[in-house]
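Ticket #4471: structure output looks truncated?

Reporter: J.K.
Steps to reproduce: submitted the chain below (87 residues) through the standard prediction queue, then opened the result file.
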Amino acid sequence: MGIEDEITCKEIVELVTDYLESAMSEPDRARFDRHLSTCRGCVIYLEQMRETIRLTGTLTEDSLSLVAKSNLMSAFHDWKREATSST
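Returned output as attached by the reporter:
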């Protein structure tokens, strides 16, 4: 197996959703796991993503304060405007 077969940290970030949803091929999953076995930073990133998913799964609209709702709406509105203007 050559270096070109190895997955990079950038690829880990791009593929983490597929990994967590078991939506990648066995060879790609093996490459992902091999990278995790040698990269503590990516292991921490994966753990953070799992925790984020766990925590956001417990959020409901009713659990947010009015200020938090307003801040989120502003952030998403600004994000959408920036995404549209950069295309």
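Triage note (M.O.): checked the attachment and the full token line is present. The chain has two domains: 1-56, 60-87.
Status: closed, working as intended.
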